Structure formats: structure tokens, C-alpha cells
Amino acid sequence: MSTLYIVATPIGNLQDMTYRAVETLKSADVIACEDTRISRKILDAYSITNKHLISCSAINENNSKSGIAKLLNEGKNVALITDAGTPCISDPGARVVDEIQKTEHKIVPIPGPSAAVCAMSIAGNTGKTWIFEGFLPKSDGKMRKRLAELMSMNITFVLYESPFRIIKLLKNIMETDPERRVMVARELTKMHEETMTCSAAEAFSNLSQRQSVKGEFCIIVYYNSNDRNDEE
Fold this sequence. Notes:
Layout: E1 3-7, H1 19-27, E2 30-33, H2 36-45, E3 52-55, H3 61-73, E4 78-81, H4 94-101, E5 106-110, H5 115-120, E6 130-134, H6 140-153, E7 156-161, H7 166-176, E8 181-186, E9 194-199, H8 200-208, E10 217-221
Parallel strand pairs: 1-4, 1-5, 2-3, 2-4, 6-7
Antiparallel strand pairs: 7-10, 8-9, 8-10
Helix pairs in contact: 3-4, 6-7, 7-8
């Protein structure tokens, strides 16, 4: 029986790599990567060399899962990593895990960085319950519909967004509830890390006035405390 390791890697700062993650990648027979070019930079930083790397991206994951199952059946231990953070969380890997769960092979998580948890740790009072939503639908109508559903639940939720759609996302949040408190975190753990906690209207105004918007975003939309009487 072989083992599939789900290994978390840094979301930005390479020093966030755990000792256990390094040792697991060094000992694995094969490393399945979202993008082998990006993974090589992480592996090189920790002198993890001469490893058999295979691709397991969002595009080819359905095909990759059978290949990974075959490697495990051959007695090889496989470590699965993505470009940043914890695999299977808004990243490839879930379909692979589904496939291997049907076998007798072990699946072992190697915990580490996650942008959502990183952001939540500095968000302050977010209430007792929160939802991780990740990326919203790309179409404007579907995005608005899902935002309305989430905000009507009145619990804190966490979103991911690219620099290309962050303005549209903040605009839609603002138009739903301009006073709703949000935290916009950009480039967490990286050199140009930035966070702002303010109303949705203020966040939209701030970013929309910039000449350029770069980096990956994690957005926390807080529950509306005026509408709840939670016992914290």
C-alpha cells in the first residue's frame, strides 16, 4: 500500500514552508505539481532535486488522477502540491483525492499555509461561523446572485479574487450593501502585502482610483452585527 501526500506550500514567503513538508517532498518518489515550472522554484529553494515531476493542473486533473493511481499501484509514494497554499482548496487535487479514496492507498495531509486561514487570523471578530466560498462565478449576473445569497445569510464569508476582477467584485458587494464591513488582503506574506478593513464602498473607492491593481486577493465580508444578537 502506497501513500498520497497532500502537501501545503507557501502562499508567498518561502520561509513558511514547514519542516515536515520539506521532508515529505524529499522522500516522495513522485511529485505531482499544478505547474512544474513554479514548483521547481520551491523545490530548488530547499535543495529538493532529482525528483520525477508530473503535471496535475485544473486542465488535466481528470486525466492525471488515473496516472497518479497507477503510480501508487506500482508502489510509489506521491506528493501532490499546487502553486501556492493547500491543495484541493480552490486549487487542483480534489478529483485526485476522490479517485484514491476508492482504493486501499493512504491519503495523508501535510498541513501548512492557506490564504483564507491566514486572512481570518487577522480579521478580528468575524462571529462564530464563517464560510469559505473561494472564487465566485465569472459572469456578472451569477456573481451578483451568489453574493446576494451569501450576504442574506448574514455570516462572515471568505472570497478569493484575481487582480483582473477585484474591482468588479468590490463594486458588486458595494451595490448590494455599501456599508458592509470588508477586509481586503492583497499579496499575503509577500513583500507588497497589504490589508485594509473598511466599508465595501471605501474599499471599492480605494482600489478603483489606483492606476494599476496587482497581486492575488483574499476578501473577507463580515457579518452585519447590527442584524444579529450573538452571544460571543
